Amino acid sequence: MAAVGVFALAALVLSCKCDSVEKPSDATGAGTGSEAERSGPAAASAGSEAPGGGAGAAVSLPDSCEEELLIRPLHSGDIYASFQFRTLWDTDFLHQGKKVSHYRLFPKSLGQVLSKFSVRELHISFTQGYWRTMQWGQPIVPSPPGAELWVWFHNTVADVDGNWKELTNVLSGIFCASLNFIDSTNTVQPSASFKPLGLGNATDHRFLRYATLPREIVCTENLTPWKKLLPCGSKAGLAVLMKSEKLFHSSFHSQAVHIRPVCKDWQCSSTAWELRQTLNVVFDLYTSGQGKKEWSLFKMFSRTLTEACPLASSSKVYVDVTDNPEGELFDLSPATSVLNTAVVLGDRRTYSVYDLTQKETFGQLRSLNLVLRWKGESGDMLRPLLHAERYVAGFGLQTGEIHTLIYNNHPYRAFPVLLLDSVPWYLRLYIHTLTVTSKTRENKPSYIHYQPSKDRLRPHLLEMLVQLPPHSVTEVTVQFERALLKWTEYTPDPNHGFYVGSSVISALVPSVVAMDTNNTQERPLFSSFFPTKEESSYFVRVYTEPLLVNLPTPDFSMPYNVICLTCTVVAVGYGSFYNLLTRTFQVEEPSQPLAKRLANVIRRIRGVPLL
Amino acid sequence: SYLFIYLFYYITTKATQFFNSGHTNNWAVLVCTSRFWFNYRHVANVLSVYRSVKRLGIPDSHIVLMLADDMACNHRNPKPATVFSHKNMELNVYGDDVEVDYRGYEVTVENFLRVLTGRLPPSTPRSKRLLSDDRSNILIYLTGHGGNGFLKFQDSEEISNVELADAFEQMWQKRRYNELLFIIDTCQGASMYERFYSPNIMALASSQVGEDSLSHQPDLAIGVHLMDRYTFYLLEFLEDIHPASQANMNDLFKVCPKSQCVSTPGHRTDLFLRDPRSVLITDFFGSVRKVEITREAVNLTSAAEQPVEATKEPKSEPLSYVDQLPVAEIIHQKPKQKDWHPPDGFILGLWTLILLVFFKTYGIKHLKHIF
Fold first, then answer.
1. Which of the residue ranges A188-192, A421-425, A563-567, B365-369 would you say has the lowest mean pLDDT?
2. Cβ partners under 8 Å of residue B251, min gap 6
3. Is A178–B106 a contact, with Cβ atoms under 8 angstroms apart?
4. Is B62 a catalytic residue?
5. Which of residues 315-344 of B touch A (CB under 8 A)?
6. Does some domain include residue A541?
7. A245 and B79 in contact by Cβ < 8 A?
8. Do strands A330-333 and A537-543 pair parallel, antiparallel, or not at all (unpaired)?
9. Using CA atoms, how far apart are residues B313 and A483, in angstroms rounded to an integer?
10. Which residues form the active site (chain B) (predicted)?
């Protein structure tokens, strides 16, 4: 009785503010550890299965979740940790007749968003920091600095723009971010990039919207609702490692939510909804590692792992030991004999696997703290095959030039890349000055799509398919002019500058090793993010830096100064002139001293003329 | 029998006290209006009040938190994801589960007044709305830079005391509050509550007109002042309050006397109907829930059986993923059909001119050859 009372109070106090997330499993996953709670998951699963199954565990559930953590030591001494949580649910959100009402592992707030706005695919990411491809290699899940949102709507939607506007507002409430600043001035409709990552055949780009907010800050208030979407919350499994004080004290932090329809099974006859939550973080050797080349879970996250999420069907930690086949580079403890190889980003890599669902992984102390101790010096990193940079050239506050450099480091293969540039309207691009040069020769793109901007309505959109020659640098330059904004359009801190979102470069890079095109469920999550259709190349997306451009800023104290000056001139100049012209002078008798006044009074009485 | 009468009297006063305040839910609107790193203390002020209010029971869904700039994840912060209130870095008021509703450029006078009056665009999410009713006690806390009769928002606009008073009157007329506690920690803060004229408002300010509110102490590692004096002593006072505390408003008026605060805190209670002595601190800062214990059994209906769905016939051919970069398809992509617009006035005028000139030169008889 008291437990129920405490329960209810705890549930009330801990309810999520950014749109309520009701999960029947929340009550069972609270972890008070009593017998009633242990049988909770079994009861919940019995309720959601098809009738006729009874309380048996033999019937497969319509939803399942997996979690994994990939730890990759980088050549510069930093360490890269990538969390992926995937929930698969066999249901139909877009079915017109029957509304989905029973949610178990899939968060209700996102499910309602999908059905209300007829969303086919949703990708949202929040990133702090910039991914340094030359030092760290390619990321598992790429993301640009700031916030990025791209959505494919279902082809039954009549008003895509209206749905988009409402969707951004709802998401800003769910993720505590200012996504409501996404409007027509920063939304574009790419015509060839951002093809759907999920199943489907028709790809009419009228149903795609892409927007990015490079200025968006990521902090604990974005992590809190993100953690609440996980089936186990931050109470069990890998998510206990997510402490904001450590996660944000890093060189790179990115959290994302990806929702798409995927194959339900290897036959791929029907679709299931997949929700992937990814969190990528790169810890710096000097700020988090105190300069010592020794990394452990406790040093990175100030926590160790104690158990897997009870609701997850698989919970694994992968450590990349490809550079350490004989153990000569670093020592990994506790040692494990389970090795797994996977082809990731065109390279065959070996991983030590720790399965958290097995009790033996946790050892005597019932906690897992992976320690990597460096012994030798690592060699040079393999140069990434594709990488890009962008910068603004020029001087002054009137004109400038945007340079985008795309590097193809493959020794003998050329491959095409698709470059997407979205520039705000206040930088007026002169497309007649657009030049694409590779190896000092002009390189004509095979496809150009340009949509000019409209002041205060639409940004510039430039998409080009460029063939990159092997071992070369391709430079794309375009000149622009800076516009003067209306004084109410300036932000409260205009001298900081205005951001231009990252360029997106999508490419099919030739792979060193044959890619695995077999879409079975047994692959680790980090190798199945981008679907692979052919063996000889893999798809990669590279984001450039966002640009920070200074616009000519007026002096905002001008109205006050003008009023003061004008009033002074009017009062002093015109006023004195007017007075001189219209003033009349009257002679005034000076007041007489008292004695004289008295004498005058006596004289008046006597009738004698006054003094 | 005297004992009986005495007991009866005691129980009735306790019962009336229990139901005295007349409110059923609590809301809080906490606003920091300053931008830039050197205004760290204003964010720390608001977060301390947020922390106290959450600790005393108001849930995140009933708190509208507006922070004009991000200090915790600011690149100048030597300890990211933390905001400290005391120079020994003892108390991280940012915490691990903060939820900020309005942040950065969204904190404007317009948004603040819209939140108060409830006149928000229809697509605003629930977490950004103040969904109070006529039985809500609302705590409004403002901090930032202010002057005689105004409060500066983000260095670019300001809200005047008249506007604020009118907003509260709108709230009263729309029955959006039962009682309102207004606390302001700015320079010359007392000027902001001078113009209130709606009933049931109690106001506190950190300084009188003509006085400046001063900051407490700087931290040498972080490099800025961490908190304002009034809110510092207010936080110290609130840390001693627990959800069942009986401390009343008179104790709150005594927080931070002139010896500690250098400025003279002021308060205004003439618009408030109840005696401040009988108003509990937790009436505004806490959310004490009145729980009714029942001994009857409640009959829950059994979970409705899920109707057996006709298994979907598997589609004839397997679905496949879309090609991410179909080069051939892209190169041969047909250009997007541009929407047809009727010809511009200029084009029409030009064609009319050309036709007129043609017929003028060659005569009207050629017209029949055209039509």
1. B365-369
2. B237, B281
3. yes
4. no
5. 315, 318-327, 330-331, 333, 336
6. no
7. yes
8. unpaired
9. 58
10. 145, 187 (nucleophile)
Q: What is the DSSP string of B42-82?
A: HHHHHHHHHHHHHHTT--GGGEEEEESS--TT-TT-SSTT-
Across the interface, which of A51, A247, A268 has its CB nearest the CB of B319?
A: A268
Whether ipTM tops 0.85, in short, is: no
**Mean pLDDT of the B158-182 span:** 95
- Burial class of residue B192 (count of CB atoms within 10 Å of its CB; 0-12, 13-18, 19+): buried
Q: Does B38 touch chain A (CB under 8 A)?
A: no
- Domain-located, residue A110: yes
User: What is the value of pTM for the model shown?
Assistant: 0.83
Give just the sign of the alpha carbon dihedral A488, A489, A491, A495.
Answer: negative
Question: Between residues A211 and A375, which one has the greater pLDDT?
Answer: A211
Range of the domain at A338: 41-47+55-381
Helix (H, G, I), strand (E, B) or coil at A519: coil
Between the alpha carbon of residue A181 and those of residues A499, B162, B203, the distances in Å are 14, 29, 34
Q: Are A83 and A67 in contact (CB under 8 A)?
A: yes
Q: How confident is the model at residue A28 (pLDDT cuts 50, 70, 90)?
A: very low
Give the C-alpha separation, A433 to A452, whole Å: 14
Of the three residues A356, A381, A406, the one that is the final residue of a domain is: A381
Is position A439 within any domain?
no
Give the count of domains, chain A: 2
Residue A411 forms part of a structural domain: no
Query: Counting one residue from A and one from B, how many pairs have CB atoms under 8 Å apart?
Result: 191
Q: Closest to A217 (Cβ–Cβ): which among B70, B320, B321?
A: B70
> How many angstroms separate the CA of residue B244 from the nearest CA in chain A?
15
Q: Which of A361, A381, A401 is the last residue of a domain?
A: A381
A371 in B contact zone (CB under 8 Å): no
Q: 């004195």: which residue's tokens? A: A576
pLDDT tens string A380-397? 777 889 999 999 999 999
